[in-house]
Amino acid sequence: MENNYDVVVIGGGVTGAAVARELSRYDLKICLLEREEDVCSGTSKANSAIVHAGYDARPGTWKARMNVEGNRMMGQLAKELDFEFQRNGSLVVCFEKDGLPALERLKEQGEQNGVRGLEILDGEAVRRMEPNLQKDVYAALYAPDGGIVCPFGLTIALAENACDNGVEFRFETEVTGVEKAEDGYRILTSRGDLRTRFAVNAAGLYADVFHNMVSDRKISISPRRGSYWLLDKAAGTLVHHTVFQVPGKFGKGVLVTPTVHGNLLVGPTAVDIEEKEDTRTTAEELEEVRKKASRSVRDIPFSLVITSFAGLRAREAEDDFVLGEAHGAPGFYDAAGIDSPGLSAAPAIGKFLAGQIARAAGAKEKPDFRPERKGIVKAASLPLSERAELIRRDPAYGTIVCRCEEISAGEIRDAVARTLGARSMDGIKRRVRAGMGRCQAGFCTPGTVEILARQLGVPMEEIRKNADGSQLLERRDSGMEVKGEGI
After folding, report:
1. Better-predicted residue by pLDDT, 353 or 479
2. Phi-psi region of 117 (alpha: psi -120 to 50; beta: other; left: phi over 0)
3. I want to staple 34 with a disulfide (CB 3.0 to 4.6 A). Which of 12, 258, 374, 402 is the partner?
4. Which one from 52, 240, 241, 261 is the annotated catalytic residue?
5. How far apart are CA 329 and CA 32, in angstroms?
6. What does the alpha-carbon distance between residue 435 and residue 42 come to, in Å, rounded to a whole number?
7. Would you call 240 a catalytic residue per the annotation?
């Protein structure tokens, strides 16, 4: 039996979550489909966590428009949805006088896009702002509106608020096909078919597959891999702004930036690949990151690296976002080719597409829409008196499970119990950061597994890192054993 909806959103990354949240303002029956066990499990989980100012995109493109608008929305959105965001500003550095024309072109381009406060600074002024820049930095473009954000926090907050406002989420539901039907579309999935009046294609690296099933104007998306080093919080104050280099043919180059959680992030590479699931890191790519980052910032303490990772960007052949109603497919709306600056642009993309669909559907705004959402309280960040009172009321907040990040049993429990609560170890990690610290879950895994199993009411051997098949433990006659290489 098919389920009928007004709107089905395909994809639970930051773009799909933003569209769902904006659609939830309207009196519509909405469903979001995600093939993984949680939101933020694909492209959105592994990126530079940057809110770009908007000077890099070509004027007149979707990237330029959505980047600048999304940047301006981010501050208010962070207040409403209670996620980490800092407007720390960004610097694009050059190393010789010959680099000045490139900075001037970026400044002019940014001003055409509507970016505020852009300024070119000489090397001496830049080093006063960032004393750890290399001595041969000649000049820099300063963009005060640049920022940093937690991509997990942003995506989860958007999704939770959408769910609280009536959007249905279906996880571990893979879309296998899209067919035109009378008055809309039939969405074929691994868990049954759905009928919908409108569809939103926010499927990341696979958005071209679904678009090409219904539109006679084809698009092509290829993955571009970027590798990163993440350094311990002891290195987190090496720079205070996000430091870029003058862009080349593959984009904005290797950056050095603080994170909202106090770490230092260095990367990415830009390697075009064929396999849409290939997120491996290589020694060669990571060495490239090290060398290029050291060109901008001196004495980066790579001895403090706690992990490396790679993410994939969904690069469309025309190098722009593909947004709006697909050609020849009324009611099918694309959010495709969302590579950088997709994280920055997501709030604006959500607003734009939701507005288009609401007008087409003749939908009215709901009077009871709730724009606010509160995140999980981090006990260790509270003033001492408030933390003591919290522990007095509930001792679970005084039991530290993750020592590196100071995450309590109460917070891990809350991550499971809340709207769209965690169902895996990665789900816990992205909501409260248990396992993201210096030891990379070496200490806290047993305690987290135990709490997660108890809250879900399942045996510990059923607890997964993420997707089905990633169980951490297996039961043998002699007792429980760790399976695989941990998390």
Report:
1. 353
2. left
3. 12
4. 52
5. 20
6. 19
7. no
